[in-house]
Amino acid sequence: MGVERIVSGMRPTGPLHLGHLHGVLKKWIELQEKYECFYFIADWHALTTEYENPERIRSYSKELLLDWLSAGLDPERTTIFLQSEVKEHAELFLLLGMLTPVSWLERNPTYKDMIQNLSDKELATYGFLGYPVLQSADILIYKAQKVPVGLDQIPHLELTREIARRFNYLYKVDYFPEPQPLLAEVPKVPGIDGRKMSKSYGNAIFLKDPPEVVRQKILSYVTDTQRPRKSDPGDPENRCNAFHLIKLYMSSEEIDSIISGCKSAQLGCVECKKALAERVINALEPFWKRREEWDKKASLEEILERGISKARDIATRTMEEVREIIFGEKP
């Protein structure tokens, strides 16, 4: 067996933040070393929530590509493309939708959560209910063997596996592989207010934020609410939201020193956050430099065109085979 294929995508709904970097991008960059990776800008998926403002999706798509390249995705080793430019995704979505029970979609754990959390948007739409089928088409059209996911995304991938099994059963073929989860340990990256970092919550540190903004946001972090004064002993491991970032950006010796200093009331929160801010800024400097370089290049469209061409070739072959399986030989 040759190199295994991986498929994953990201919706262009705004700038990427530290949560994306540690939760997704670092894993993607690592995977490109040993797998055949297909990473796509999921602009059709973005329409499930941004259908009233489609003009944003185009600009966000460019920003997303810039962030990916600046973080370290290599277009020479990875196929990067725009979902909507490979129309075969939509055709397979249509065909798989014909055989997917509605009850499978209604049990999707993200469906009700997002409707509740994004109450300012009308999400009770056919497209939003059916987006997991489009996700399945995105994966199955490339016959991906593995998909990088966090634990919370396992139900989504299991639906893809169920759809693949149902297709194979109904048409008496062994055609679509059942993609396996490539589990990634996703570190907790809370936002400024302690909730999950999210652009929709307004609590994110974006990768393209300039140094002074990063510094200001980190100094605004909610820390130990039970430690109103520096002279009060703290409990960073259990009560400090900034401590999750500290674990990502500080050495083990520094972390031990921070825990000791906080618990003994020798180290104040402001002093601690100032040191953390400098570490985050230092870590992001290579990203900012690469982003500036990529932004000056005229090759962004070329990168997408190359990726679209490769993805389309594979998707076209898949759809020719799927049509033959379902409808038989051409008349």
Helices and strands in order:
Blueprint: E1 5-10, H1 18-31, E2 36-41, H2 43-50, H3 54-71, E3 78-82, H4 88-99, H5 102-106, H6 109-117, H7 126-140, E4 146-149, H8 154-170, E5 180-183, H9 211-219, H10 236-239, H11 242-249, H12 252-263, H13 269-296, H14 300-327
Proportion in helices: 55-70%
Rg measurement, Å: 22 Å
Distance between the termini: 35 Å
What is the N-to-C succession of helices and strands? EHEHHEHHHHEHEHHHHHH
CATH topology of the largest domain: Rossmann fold
| Helical stretch tally | 14
The global form is elongated
Strand order of the largest sheet: 1-2-3
Return the average pLDDT rounded to an integer: 92
Sheet bearing the most strands, described?
3 strands, parallel
The CATH fourth-level homologous superfamily of the largest domain:
HUPs
- How many structural domains in the coordinates? 2
Beta fraction: 5-15%
Q: What's the level 1 CATH class of the largest domain?
A: Alpha Beta
Q: Which CATH architecture of the largest domain would you pick? A: 3-Layer(aba) Sandwich
Give structural notes.
- The protein is mainly alpha-helical and 331 residues long.
- It folds into 2 domains: 5-188 and 299-327, HUPs (Rossmann fold, 3-Layer(aba) Sandwich), CATH 3.40.50; 209-291, Tyrosyl-Transfer RNA Synthetase.
- It is built from 14 helices and 5 strands.
- Strand 4, helix 8 and strand 5 (180-183) form a beta-alpha-beta unit.
- Helix 7 packs across helix 8 (154-170) and helix 9 packs antiparallel against helix 13 (269-296).
- The mean pLDDT is 92.
